[in-house]
Amino acid sequence: MSRKVPKKPQNLVSRRALLTGTLAGTALALTACTTSPRNAASASPTASPSATEVPRTLRLAAPAPPSGLDPAITGDNESFRVSRQIYETLVSIDANTGSPIAGLAESWTQSQDGLTYTFTLRQGVKFHDGTEMDAESVVANFNRWATLPTALSNDSSQGFTDVFHHTENIPTLPTEKDLQLNLDDGQEATERDVAAQQQRLEQLAALTPVFEQDLFTGKTTAGSASYFGSVAATSKYLVTLTLRRRLPSLIDALSLPGMAIAAPSALTGGPASNPAQSLMKTPMGTGPYRFVSHKDHNVRLEIFDDYWNRGRLDANTNHPQVAIISSVPSPYNRENAMSADEIDGFDLVSVDIMRDLVRSAKLVVQRDPFSVLYLGMDHRNKWLAKREFRQAIAYAVDTGQLASKLFIQGTKSAASILPPALSVPEPEARYNHDQNAAQKLLEQVGYAGEEIEFAYPLRVSRNYLPLPERVFAQLSEDLAKVGIRVRPRPIAWTDGYVDTVRSDDFTGLHLLGYSGGYRSEDDFLSGILSNKAHEFGYSSALLDSQILAARSLDPGEARTAAYASILQTLNFDLPLLPLVFPISALAFNPNVSFYPSSPMLNECYADIQMSNSPAVSS
Q: Which residue, 58, 340, 499, 538, is most buried by CB atoms nearer than 10 A?
């Protein structure tokens, strides 16, 4: 059924609550601070404000709180966007090109066989506890990541576990028999199915000689397919990292927020299950902002006086000196709070308030699409286990209408989980909207209108899903038009939505998405599929083998072709239906003149240009 656009509710956030840091709710996470070589020179510290001076204060409303403050064991962008103000990584990202640049490592070299990397660290970098960053501190972080208990590593995303695939094992190639089509009695294979099966057999033939070799070298402390070999401090400012197999995307991957370097003093002292437990409440990094408090669902950050890159701060004398990030789940309440000058800006503008913002001359900053929204289809469900039923869903959903009605202009429908920016061709046999085709497939499998549980999140906006309830309503309407009945399962985001849909207890349809952290196909595949057995009830020896083979290929035609084949496998198996590549946006009052938007959420507060709102100065 369709739903009307809801009226904007009354603003429920008081000005006093925001300014005093007592707003109940959730807290925005802010991402990746990029250090630029041109600003790396030392300079005299910026003058501290006098006792009577009000520091430049950024008040930002976000849709959800950080799930945790330790980036090594968290997996959501809200957490990363806070932690990336506080922490830094060995490699950073160029804000204009997205290419890797010097971070805490000022340079690096790679051996000819691609298995050894040597990083030269910056000197004079201090952690927020006053201790110096050196090679031993970097090694301490790697050793901690490599020995994380399973209970913690499972919560990690865009960090060590995903970069090095540390807990994975080498897959076993399927046989030709494993790839045969499974047809019900009396069912005949379509031309599309026959072509897909031939394609799968060709993919298997191409993989066979690859898996006849010794894929990995050296010992492993974890899974047989772990790329991590060893790490050592070869001098005070030199770190040597050894791999067990080539990983051409490694340098880019080291910029991920989960690879942030924490102060060694915070890595010990806790229980055996998590010696670095203090980082969950008191993050300790080298970034331009130090953590002050996370109280009443508000995060407060302040400029770190001993930040090593003073040139960067001096080059932008209008950067925020204080940041207060509060949570306002409703996009309409976020807009009302900004109109009332209770906040300076907010993240995740919804399509239906974009026009109001433009008319009122607000600064609207858009991000290019580098995320994907998808519809998960659990293969353990009686009906979703049938490929024809999943195909019927794919034909029933009108992704073009979804993109145009409920997302910011420029959002495109998706035929794969890899954004166009990665330049991997879409599968040729895409599922264009076709209600007749959907109904024929439903008749073929004997579907008689049984309900399918459909989960969607409440009280949250995500950059890939700004209006969850309305997206659910639109998809439900599309499915109803071909005769598929759904049973709504709304779950509050903060009540464990992600854990629920990725558990063995839920076996229906669900909405979820993924935001890329660096320019890599493997980042999306790992981020979405690493938990595929629990989230989608899906396993594929062919897919696992394809992904492993593709990771060690250098950029070029062979690598692009390998990932195109992976997309074809996913298109055939359909554990999920890609929906859209969303454009997200932020909005600000006139006192904010520049915000460094990034498709990869590489947005550091030190680069914001602003003045204080009259509400703060008065």
A: 58
